[in-house]
Amino acid sequence: MKKSLFLLGVTAAVLSGCSNQEVMDVADYANQPIKFSTFVDKTTRSGDVAQATFQKFWVFAQNKAVSSAEWADAFTNVQVNKIGDNNWQPINTYYWEQNKEFRFAGYANGESQLDNTVVSYDAGSTNDNSTSGLLTFKEYSTDGKNDLVAAMGNENNYTWDGSTGDAPAVGMTFRHMLSKLTFTFKTKMANTYTVAVSSLRIEKATTKSTGTYHKDNNGTIKWNSDGLLNYTGTYTFENIPNVTADAANEQGYFSQMCAPLYVIPQSCGTLKVNFTATVKNDAQETVGQQDFVATLSYSPSETETNLQKDTWTAGYYYNYTAELKLEDINTDPNAKPIKFDVTVDDWKLTTPGDDLTLK
């Protein structure tokens, strides 16, 4: 039999924002080749994309004659690798063209390149009131393991006439396309118990959707699954072997957090999380095991004006917390928690001691 469990959902961190973002500079210090010199100006609050861990990304470029309205591909889905500090190199060399305007867009899907049938860039698109084109992730499918970030050139158009000096630096601000999700389990059971959480999963969630990005309004991200087949699936989280493994906090709670997943932004008010909790004593004998189910509702605080009730928003980190109690897990209906009834006697008077002689 499954038991219902109340979960407390909180937004743990904003993954990106105007004051906390990753900035990449695409710069050229040769005559005409387009080269990449990349740095991360500020890490995200969650620490997902930082200079120390960000190793590669992929870039699109389109250009047109200054007097034309027709954009054409300059290069498509080109991998750029980190060679050293502030040193990035594409696997191919591309060149600035005189009297041409360029537009750039980039992405990183963890360490994986997306197929051209999934990701594309249209520099001339004005869909969704874009002034910089549209980067599209068509029928993007995820198991939650990859953090998807997207960017466009901070300037709408880049030009260089090939004269002596530095080519323009193409600044790109990467933003998180997905929501980040984790679960924290806490208990006041003694650490002589091993409290394990397994089969932690969210079923019937959106795992495939089409996303779009453009840089207006500090980054505009939209996801839509309308018309897609088989767009729901299961997000499976790693097991927690022992909630009581570390020291308790000042309130007496032991707690552990599971490894987070990156999920497609979606309505969450009707989604449910399922997991199994197993408790063993110091002799590693199972004293209780129970399946739980809980609804993943979410209510933003008054200060979280960018967030909506029962909705996971792109770029935000959600942490749901559940308290595990042995009386909810034990399979023996007669089992009761050990409680203490404590009485402290009043101070008892003793025979007065000898007078003190002060010297």
From TrEMBL:
PROSITE patterns: PROKAR_LIPOPROTEIN. CDD domains: BF2867_like_N (cd13120). This is Fimbrillin family protein. It comes from Bacteroides finegoldii.
